[in-house]
Amino acid sequence: MLAKKTLTQVLDLLEKKEITLEELHKDLHAAVAEKNETLNVYLTVNTASAEEAAQRSEAALRGIPIAVKDNYCTKGIRTTASSTVLDTFVPPYDSTVIANLKKAGASILGKTNLDAWAHGSSTETSQYGRTLNPRNTNHLPGGSSGGSAAAVAADMAIAALGTETAGSIRQPAAWCGIVGLKPTYGRCSRYGVVAMASSTDSPGPMTKTVEDAALLLNHMAGHDKYDGTTADVSVPDFTQAIGKSIKGLKIGYVYHSIEGLEESNAHLAKELEVFKKLGATVEKVEAMDPHYAISVYTVVQRGEVSSNLGRYDGIRYGNDRSFFGAEAKRRIMLGTYTLSKGYSDQYYNTAQKVRSLYIQDYNKLFETYDVLISLTSPGYAKKIGATEGEAMFGELEDMLLEPSSISGLPGISVPCYRDPETNLFLGMNIVAPMWKEETVIQVADAYEKATNWNTWRAAEKAGE
Amino acid sequence: MTTPDSKNYELVCGMEVHAELKTNSKMFCGCKNDPFGAPEPNIYTCPTCMGMPGGLPVANKKAIEWTIKLGLALGCKINLFSKFDRKNYFYPDLPKAYQISQFDIPFCYEGTIETSEGPIRITRIHLEEDTGKLQHKNIDGKKVSLLDYNRSSVPLIEIVTEPDIHSTSQAKEYAKKLRQIIRYLDIADCDMDQGGMRLEANISLREVGTTELPNYKVEVKNINSFRFMEQAIAFEMDRHQEILEAGETPPQETRGWNPTKNETFAQRMKEEAADYRYFPDPDLAPVRFTQKQVDAIGKQLPELPNAKQARWLTKFGIETKYSDLLTSERTYAEWLETVFAQAEKPNDIANALVNKKITISEGEAPAAVIKKVAALTQTDDVDSSELLAVIQEVMKANNDAVAKFRAGDTKVIGFFIGQVMRALGKKVDAAELRNALMTELKK
After folding, report:
1. Which residues on A lie below 8 Å from B55 (Cβ)?
2. B183: helix, coil or strand?
3. What is the per-residue pLDDT for B274?
4. I want to staple A111 with a disulfide (CB 3.0 to 4.6 A). Which of A70, A179, A381, B38 is the partner?
5. Chain A partners of B84 at a C-beta cutoff of 8 Å?
């Protein structure tokens, strides 16, 4: 099955003409047809992917189909953000990242499920039903980019796109046992991505291997004249960090002593020994308590959400406000409150100050360490229905990622343990200073190749 | 209705003026900024100014520079660090459900505009985006609301004053001067009919002799002519006085102006005023300027009307009573200066133009204008025997008038001057003619 291949493998096969684009697309559509009904990964499948790809076979990505989170505007393909408010919305334009990828030769296989408006960490707030975790269908895939994570994990895509505001790429990547890379805020354009929390939204790749993530990011990133928050900094070739030694690198191990995370941290601590063998140093280090980040993120994100969702009045496109789900309504109300006159100082402005404290804390830590490592998520993928009555579900699950998210830092999650009984994974989160995606890629790639937790690397080694 | 008794009450008024900048593109996207020239509705639009999912704003640098330019022209201080904020409210003409504006850090603050009745302090000038246009129509017997987003996100500046205005005439002078300066800078057309410039007045009255601000204020919004503004303020002054004299305080509210009925009408009470939930727009990075950059913008400022009038006085001897009018439009003034530069007596030209003694068109060759003015005083040479013959002829034909003159009614001399000129068909030096006539009549 070609659907089981990694992006790097498929590119190689296409280049050597050992496979055809047609075969590849056929295989993927077959995988989607076989599994989508059970897993509920895709909300829309692009049946024309093969024809579109054929026109791009000469470009770098050679017409390879990718799965796209359904909050990226895609010209001519319905974009819902998993909310029935946008049930009928067909964008007249491509988001910049999609346009960049098309130019580089990618085609769209389909649009994947997410928590409605990317509000959540489970896909359970999707108004089109939850996605199931392909590793264990009694469990959730995480979110909000749960559909994209499941598409990759289930080999229903070669690679996928996610967006992260605080954990939405890395947490589902961890829960589904794949690689999720959140780039620096401003590295990839947000133009055409349905806005959630504007000050932290970051598009990023979700892939089978670290190398695939680096390759995909190469074609996503860059300054965009349509997004004033993208930085005018040069985009390096991220694949240059692949296979690079991590000898002499200094690693700080953070969030090692948080109550309730003992079991997960025990697995992670053991895995950190791998880095020592590879010639890096690993030290336990204290970082600012991530619990505060929950409050900061909640206040900032709800405030921005309440403003960003105001436009969905049903006048120009889509359905009216009565179509909003419970979670969106909850966030709009909380955000409206925290931005209200007399409260904004107490909430939004104070949250922004605490955010600055996190940034300062990171700056200090990065004077000593090249990267900081922690668990991605407190534990394994939760069971379906776990979010019921848990309004703060996502924030607790994403607690370990929120400090780096609100600080705009790049981070990657790679599988670092698999529970043999449940077949569920733990993820390792590697964070570096702004614009140092290369470093997280370098460290993650070295680790991935030195261990057997990555399913596709393991298969490769086994000669499959 | 009572008439305002200026002995008892005086006007305390501040103004807010909106003007659309005439940049090529809109404030936060690349769409064409030409809402009035658009041949069809909704053609100058894109995902950003239509508020589509995923649309993002990118600030128009020129619009920011022009705002600072106006600030410098009005003697404002400039905030080197500034930012854009979201002003959240729902209205169908506001596609994002928030307007990108500036809340606590405007680009410019603390300036002045001089009027003949005293200086008006400028509180602030900030930059924001305009809304779309909503039209309520009746089509095929159905009441419909139509939306045109060609104007959505057009750059809009707002100039806010302190409550320094104390008469309707001062309000008008202020607004006219502001428009004049904006036009001098060539940053906005300020076409009031089309809404390119909109006036708002915050009106209250206080007893003459007191200095503290009144404890209420009434806002009259969206006034689109200077005359309506004067009328609206006068109407409000009457209304407030009546209420105040009854021992009550006019309610704090927003009112509109009905030009057909010549009266203001209540729109919304202040207590119901929206909470706009301002917060810094996370889509736009803060704007930072260095003093050097601001200075460079200052160097681009053209000579403003007041400075021009002063210079004309020293350089050409043009009296201020003329230059005040003649400098009202920049291109006209600049052309006129080329005329002055070639004229022997520039002030005569100014006089002739202001008093409309000659008709000219802007851009005409200076020499032609000078010739027209000279012609006003030019006389033809007349042979003295020819003149004498005509005088005698006229006297013969008007025996009655001659008799009157000789009887002591010397005023009829004017009649003779006119008659002689007509008979001659030439323009003769009036003094010379008068002398000749006197000699003949006295014979």
Report:
1. 191-192
2. helix
3. 67
4. A70
5. none
Buried b (16+ CB within 10 A) or exposed e, A384-417: beebeeeeebbbebbbbbbbbbbbbbbbbbbbbb
Residue B207 burial (CB count, 10 A): 11
The pTM for the full model equals: 0.89
A93-129 exposure pattern, b = at least 16 Cβ within 10 A, e = fewer? bbbbbbbbbbebbbbbbbbbbbbbbbbbbbbbbbbbe
- The structural domains of chain B, with segments of one domain joined by +, span 9-292, 303-374, 384-442
- Other C-beta atoms closer than 10 Å to the C-beta of B296 total 12
Q: Does A292 touch chain B (CB under 8 A)?
A: no
Tokens (6 digits) for B323: 């230059």
The rounded distance, in Å, linking the Cα atoms of B196 and B156 is 9
- Supply B144's token pair: 């419909």
| B275 and A CB contact within 8 Å | yes
pLDDT surpassing 80 at residue A152: yes
Hey, what CATH class is B384-442 in? mainly alpha
The tens digit of pLDDT for each residue in A30-60 reads 999 999 999 999 999 999 999 999 999 999 9
- Cβ neighbours, 10 Å, residue A135: 23
Q: Which of B:18-77 have CB within 8 Å of A?
A: 47-48, 50-59
Report the alpha-carbon distance of residue A162 to residue A204 in Å, rounded: 5
Q: Which of B48, B53, B281 sits opposite A73 (nearest CB)?
A: B53
Q: Which residue has the tokens 């805020």?
A: A185
Give chain A positions within 8 Å (CB) of B278: 339, 344
Nearest to A81 by CA among A159, A28, A133, A143: A143
- Three-class SS state of A367: helix
Strands B9-20 and B155-161: antiparallel
Range 132-151 of B in CB contact (< 8 A) with A: 147
Nearest CA to B5 out of B203, B205, B226 is that of B205
Tell me the nearest-neighbour CA distance from A143 into chain B, angstroms: 20
**Pairing status of strand A65-69 against strand A107-112:** parallel
Distance from CA of B63 to the nearest CA of A (A): 16
Would you call A311 and B95 a contact, using CB atoms and an 8 Å cutoff? yes
Chain B contacts in chain A segment 67-86 (CB below 8 A): 72-73, 79, 81, 86
Note whether A307 contacts B58, CB cutoff 8 Å: no
Q: Which amino acid is at B440?
A: E
Give CA torsion, residues A432, A435, A440, A445, to 10 deg. -170
Q: How far is B54 from chain A (nearest CA, A)?
A: 4
User: pLDDT (tens digit, 9 = 90+) per residue, A271-314?
Assistant: 999 999 999 999 999 999 999 988 888 888 999 999 999 999 99
Closest chain B CA to residue A347: B279
For residue A441, name the pLDDT band (cuts at 50, 70, 90): very high
Q: Do residues B399 and B412 touch, judged by C-beta distance below 8 A? A: no
Per-domain residue ranges of chain A: 2-461
What is the pLDDT confidence band of residue A322, given thresholds at 50, 70 and 90?
Answer: very high
Q: What amino acid positions of A are annotated as catalytic residues?
A: 69, 144, 168
Contact assignment for A193 to B92 by CB distance below 8 Å: no
- Tell me if A79 and B53 make a contact (CB, 8 A cut-off): yes
| Three-class DSSP category at B340 | helix
Q: Which residues of chain B have pLDDT under 70?
A: 1-7, 270-274
Alpha-carbon gap: B275 to the closest alpha carbon of chain A (Å): 6
Options 3.90.1300.10, 2.30.30.240, 2.70.70.10, 3.40.50.620; CATH of A2-461: 3.90.1300.10
Inter-chain contact B53–A194, Cβ cutoff 8 Å?
A: yes
Q: 3-state DSSP call for residue A335? A: helix
pLDDT at B271: 55
